[in-house]
Amino acid sequence: VAQKVELTTVLDIISKRKEEVLELSLSIISEVEKMTAHQLNQLEKLRQKAAELETIERVKEESDDVRPSLENLEAINQLVEKLNTQRPKPVVVSANSDNNIRIWKNGQAKILEGHTQEVTSVAVSHGKEFIVSGSLDKTVRVWSISTRKQIQVLEGHTQRIWCVDISKEDKFVVSGGDGGTIIVWNLASGEKNLVTEGHRGSVKCVVFSKKDEFILSAGRDGTIKKWSLALEQQNLMPNGNYGEILSLAISSKDEFIAFGSKNNPIWVYNIGSRNLTSLKNSHCEFSSLAISKNDKFLVSLSFTGSQNLIVWDLTQNKTTQDISIRCSQIIASSIDLSIDNKQVVFGLCDVSGNGSNIGIYDLETGKQVEALKNNNKAQTWSVKFI
User: Fold this and answer.
1) Potential cystine with 161: which of 134, 249, 338, 345 (Cβ 3.0-4.6 Å)?
2) Model-level pTM greater than 0.85?
3) 8 by DSSP, 3-state: which?
4) Which of 91, 121, 118 lies closest to 104, judged by CA?
């Protein structure tokens, strides 16, 4: 009898445990179903980071074999080279003259088709979930990075589009084009929030402030304008004889801007103090530029001429690196810095009509990391790291 009672008790306990496990399983399933696409994306990023860390740890373990000979420079160099080869190659998106967008990974390109004319500009969302593109076909398009599918087509421009940018919270897009037109788009609704014609001639640059407090625009008329998010014009800087402005960047704290224009030096303008200075010996035509995430340096590449990739120390107004790209009949079209400020990507267009190259360089070593080339004669007009 005692054994039967004990067996019954055990069965009751097992039954209760089954119910608890089932309840817990249902709870977990419910929580997983509640996870947003953003959370799943973050989970995938964590998995990728874990894989990177595993690779680094493996290389560290292998480095133990050379520690007794660390004084041997050759052994150190071999270890550094091995670590560099183990690092994942950067992923880059490019806008091209063959109406397509390309996502480059491990030297191979995945093509995004949809535009009917040349794609002039691309921007990557801060959450790394989607790409926005602008085109001569007068449309702004939104693409999923994970599926490489078109999500939205934003129609409203009546003339060609030259530039796009995405707000920090990934809620709005701004685009600029011919006729001086600037449009702010609401990505949730796909509708135009605001439209203005604030420039005389084409708008070639549009930039959201890093805090999403204002928008900057510049273009063929040689002016830079500051707009509230309601597209109400605000005072920024006095007009000057800058020539056509084709490159514009803003610091991470919205304290200063840098811009390049025709037959002029690279200018740096402090928004608070309203002080305008030029970078020494930076006279070039149409310099493409990017500011580091820590606001300490700027990278520039001239559109024509010497084709040198130059790193400028913004705290001392001097060059710290001068990297020769060594190419001819080439114009620089676009430039971007990686989030860790260690690599730079740029697009180069061959004016002879033989297509274009995308170069990725390591700023610490000054060496080329990767060279990407379109397999047709398409030019590259815009590039960004993903």
Assistant:
1) 134
2) no
3) helix
4) 91
